[in-house]
Specification:
Oligomer: homodimer
Number of strands of chain A: 21
Structural class of chain A: alpha/beta
Strand content of chain A: 5-15%
Distance between the termini of chain A: 44 Å
Shape of chain A: globular
Mean pLDDT of chain A: 94
Low-confidence stretches of chain A: 1-24
Number of helices of chain A: 19
Largest sheet of chain A: 6 strands, mixed
Helix content of chain A: 40-55%
Chain lengths: ~500, ~500
Amino acid sequence: MAEAATRRRGGGGASRRAERSAVSFETARYIQRNIPNFEILNDEALEIIEANAETVLAEIGVNIVNNPTALDLWREAGADVNGERVRIPRGLARKLCETAPQTFTQHARNPARTVEIGGRNLVLAPVYGPPFVHDAEAGRRYATMADFEKFVKLGYMSKWLHHSGGTVCEPTDIPVNKRHLDMLMAHMTLSDKPFMGSVTEPSRAEDSVEMCEILFGKEFVQDNTVMTSLVNINSPMTFDDVMMGALEVYAKNNQACIISPFIVGGAMAPVSVAGTLTQVLAEVTAGIAYSQLIRPGAPVIFGAFVTSIDMNSGAPTFGTPEASQITYGAGQLARRLGLPYRSAGAFTGSKLPDAQAAYETANSLNMGLLSGVNFMLHACGWLEGGLVSSFEKFVMDADQLGALHKLAEGIPVDSDAQAMDAIAEVGPGGHYLGCAHTQANFKSAFWRSEVFDYKPYETWSEEGARDTMALATERVRRQLETYQQPALDPAIQDALTEYVTKKKASMPDAFM
Amino acid sequence: MAEAATRRRGGGGASRRAERSAVSFETARYIQRNIPNFEILNDEALEIIEANAETVLAEIGVNIVNNPTALDLWREAGADVNGERVRIPRGLARKLCETAPQTFTQHARNPARTVEIGGRNLVLAPVYGPPFVHDAEAGRRYATMADFEKFVKLGYMSKWLHHSGGTVCEPTDIPVNKRHLDMLMAHMTLSDKPFMGSVTEPSRAEDSVEMCEILFGKEFVQDNTVMTSLVNINSPMTFDDVMMGALEVYAKNNQACIISPFIVGGAMAPVSVAGTLTQVLAEVTAGIAYSQLIRPGAPVIFGAFVTSIDMNSGAPTFGTPEASQITYGAGQLARRLGLPYRSAGAFTGSKLPDAQAAYETANSLNMGLLSGVNFMLHACGWLEGGLVSSFEKFVMDADQLGALHKLAEGIPVDSDAQAMDAIAEVGPGGHYLGCAHTQANFKSAFWRSEVFDYKPYETWSEEGARDTMALATERVRRQLETYQQPALDPAIQDALTEYVTKKKASMPDAFM
């Protein structure tokens, strides 16, 4: 784990000097956990929740809105369909989930960046969806395509980020019906990491597949998964035609979807953790079962975006103990289903990348690692309850992801790690700074932040007494200055440009 | 758990109005975990470390400095003593540890605040030791007795802090040989929570016992533990006469000590986690064995203050993955010895209570909870690698400790928590905000920060767009304004004052 897939760039003194600078173009291998998961629920509790979820599906059912084909599929599969309400007999949804793969490969155009999703792995992807961006200089404002491109660049340059993500912010200056084209273009050309497809219309999912066929080749896309996209469930227990339409396109094309309730506890699910877990399990098994009705074996991820609520104001709250409990519990439920698990992220409700943001984020990131998450969306850059993509927080969070890598390596106990020679060499009252074992191991012994300040107080004061925000501002600037685009076959670049140009010309702008 | 021991104050409209204000004088019961511990090491790894620790004790040994009595005790117990080097035959130190209690009670003068240390419990105590203080207004400066008293007051008013601690900051304006008297006086009179005794000279430990005899009564102190004090080991493997002298006083008087290596990995222990754990185990078992040689059954805590180092600058680093690994592993070693465990805290190397401080602190607090810590010193207020007690960070961290309480409660799965009626009542497409289950449970359902901002962006902007630091400044001010001293028998107060006055008059000031 943490074996780096180094990208070396072309020759020339300037290029070599760039390599020696603080900027790194390395991407760490996705995390392969060598530590256990934290199992918060015992078997009895898990069995109660599973039995209750079956009761919910069989007796209450789910609504499948504006989607007669889906109703037909469910009816044929043995469900009781009454209007748009689908009641699923006990065990049926769970049984249908069995054809979904336990792990799958999402290919990147740079094969060194291909990821395995599932098992003991953890793939980290950036923030998804905010209409606003924030930085120290210009404050909070609507996101534009220029911002989007900057975030893709920052993601490409983040050593600990394995995935380029999807809607790293909403490019609100581009028509709604065309922005998916520009967003995909940015992921495909400004980065070589794996990415996500569009889900805002089934036709945009089709466009996403077609652009991937240009990038990867048509045959490759039919045989391989090259996108993992986010399909939200309208909790409680409602599956709308837009999201299901995107799921249908992706499943038919063997492309992966995260099937994910989006829950603020107390609003879209019960105020209790056990009740919320029951609903999450019912919703996800219904959604994944449906993906398998479309195409048995289609790659999917058990998603759970669940957080708590401030009952005073109704605001969603993040990094809270109830959110952690749900994330730990949902991980256990996903593993018992044998499915890859998506949850957690760099969550916060704070309006600034301040201490609140960092406490809440660190709570979320830690529980994400220990709860066995396989795909972590929003792993960096999230601010203000997901309304804002923050430039500074992006690099702060991305840096912290390095700590997750190191923690996940576990504790080696081989002869060198036991360090008995060192203890004997140094002895009582000595110090280890110069001993042979330290000399041999110090370079890799300790994870080190590339954002935080470790200097003595006096040096730090002389340098301007900067807080983390100021240090991050500087890092964002430096990263964007030293960014270099990964190479891409010019013929592919041209074909993508032609596709996007034609597609855009084929329809009038729409901003709704 | 989290059952509150409410302190109600005397009558009068003003007092009742004060009670209804934002300030709370409640203290939560110490945490009684209803969640598992995170077990990072498997049995094989634990056995390797335990065997290696025995080898260290038997073949390398420990230094016991300037303490002939201790050498005699060890010789009588069967150790090989050569000068100040003590080699302890395999199994002997571990065997001697068996008489130490698995859990013990530390009494507070307010019985509702008495704590049980050990088992599945977690007792939270504030920062210990910094010579500097910091706040937003006045910045960083040497700590004074006035600062000390403010921290004791803040600790008394913190709902989630079970313990008043010890040297919450060093009152540098008071002579070194007298400050322990003023510090104890502050803990005894400004708070009614349990506290720590002095360890800087054996005579000061004696003074601490004598002051407790005034506060609790002489007989009570002989039969009960009323102090838990911090005895550091000079790692690697050195036990100095000052610390051991304090331990001797406390153990003889049945008072508790944390016996704790103080390790910056790579300097005072090997750069590897397994090597560090080996050394920690060897040191702590030797120290605890010694406490049991003094008085079998003396209450002690297996301590581990261990963090990593920045190999670039030599600065200690906090909230790092290696520190987490060590804390998880040391917890397992402590449990296998059947001893209460002290580790973790609100650690950070940052110079400000900024995002760095909060990421590092949250990493540390989370691993502290999950690693099974029973006594967490430094649970709030720590800044700049322990050089600084921060007023703002004290209240920020103390607030986060509430999240630990809630997480530790675990996930109820009783019939009410299953919320099946709520799921049926709301159904697909509904919302839970008004349903019966939510109405019945919303008050206790979700933990809520009393420092963070959960308001909408617009409200937050209108109120001055304050970051967490500014919100915390306000909370510190409010807490200190509304502080009320807990009642104390005036005769005891007078006797304490007389003791301190006489003691101070009995010796000249010393500032070294």
